[in-house]
Structure formats: structure tokens, C-alpha cells
Amino acid sequence: MLTVHHLEYSRSHRILWLLEELGLPYEIKHYRRTRAFLAPKELKAVHPLGKSPVVTWDDKTLAESGAILQYLADTHPDAGLALPVDDPAYADYLYWLHAAEGSLMPWLVMKLVFQRVPKAPMPFFIRPVARSLSERVVGTFIQPNIDNHLALIESWLEDRSWFAGNRMTLADIQMSYPLEAASARANLDKYPAVKAYLERIRELPAYQTALEKGGAPTP
């Protein structure tokens, strides 16, 4: 049976959601973050990088949420969550499947890191400088790039229910995490289509079951 090594507040929420959509049996091994919000060292016994998600079955170990999603969807084609190359929406499917981690998520991670800089241990007289520098980098460089990506997604979803074609695909599962992260750290009132999309996927039974089993994807 497949085991999901699930770290709280992580991309492994995607894996639980997909497994619920596929109706596959699986086990969850839960891991809690450290006080520094890092993965615990126990995960290094599962995979050398010590990151989550990781899935194991038989003598196999697979990391990287995108790779896990694609493997599961490709090995269960009857579910229709991985589009074939001859599907008219295949190009859109590929774009959003990769844009989630290749374009949007790096900016969200950078914002999180810089917002934590002023909270790190440092001499008291350095803290105001660190706070000022962090706020300047976020305000003038990072946030504008996040806004650009959210504006693109907003325009894409204005007249669409899903990211690729007229039904839910793996692209939606992949895009869910950065959008949940953006929602947790910013006001999305400027992006009503994005908010409506998040509300829509949160109502899906498989998504709700993933929440019940693994907790919220973001703090």
C-alpha cells in the first residue's frame, strides 16, 4: 500500500487530494514542523533531502509533489485527470501544471522568507535596518511580481471554471497550493475570480476529505 509522508502545512495536501479523487487506498504518516517551521529530521530517513511530500510503496520512494501527482495520474488514466497530448486543452494543462511551482510559488516563498528576516535572532540595533530592508524588498520587488501572476490567473479564470478545459484536471490540483498560500498571506478581494475558484475547489468532497485527514495546506 502507498504511504504518504505528510508534513503539516505543506504541498503534500495536493497528494492527499489526488488520492481521494482517485479513490486509492493509502496510509498517512504525519510529521510536524519544528519551531523554526522546518521539516523534522525524521524525514531524512525517508528521503535524503528531508522534504515533504514523499510517497513510498514496495521498494519505491518518490519525492516532489509535481512528480508524485503526475505519476499517480498517469498510472490511473481512467480518472481523466492527466490530459492526453491530443486534447485541445493540453497546452493550457502543461502551462499551469508547471507555472504553479516554476513561476508563482518561488515569489510566495521569497515573500515568506523576507517577512521572517526581522524576526530572526540579531542584535537589537540591527533589527530596524533588517525590517526596513525586508519591507523594501517585499514592497518594491516581490509583491509586484506576485500581483502580476495573480492578475494573470484572475484574467484566466474570469470565464473559466477550471485551469485546463471544461473539467478539473491535475493542473487544478497543482495550482491549488500556491493559491491557498496566496490567500493565507494576502487579501484577494482584488481577484474575485481567484476567490471564487478557491471556494469552488474547497467544496469538492475529495478536497474536504484531504483536509480532514491532513489538515489545512497553509497555516
Detail the topology: elements first, then pairings:
Elements: E1 2-7, H1 12-22, E2 26-31, E3 54-57, E4 60-63, H2 65-74, H3 90-116, H4 127-157, H5 170-185, H6 192-202, H7 205-214
Parallel strand pairs: 1-2
Antiparallel strand pairs: 1-3, 3-4
Summarize the structure.
With 219 residues, this protein is of the alpha+beta class.
The unreliable regions are none
Q: Beta-strand level of the residues, as a percent range?
A: 5-15%
Number of distinct helices: 7
Q: Main β-sheet, in a few words? A: 4 strands, mixed
Strand-pairing-aware structural class:
alpha+beta
The arrangement of helices and strands along the chain is EHEEEHHHHHH
Strand order of the biggest β-sheet: 2-1-3-4
> How much helical structure, as a percent, in the residues?
40-55%
End-to-end gap: 29 Å
Shape: globular
Question: How many DSSP E strands?
Answer: 4
Radius of gyration: 18 Å
Average pLDDT across residues? 93
Descriptive overview:
Helix 5 packs across helix 6. This protein starts with a strand and ends in a 5-residue tail after the last helix. The radius of gyration is 18 Å and the shape is globular. The longest helix is centred in the middle third of the chain and has 31 residues. The protein has a four-stranded mixed β-sheet with strand order 2-1-3-4, covered by helices on one side. By secondary structure, the chain is of the alpha+beta class. It is built from seven helices and four strands. The mean pLDDT is 93. Helix content is 53%, strand content 9%.
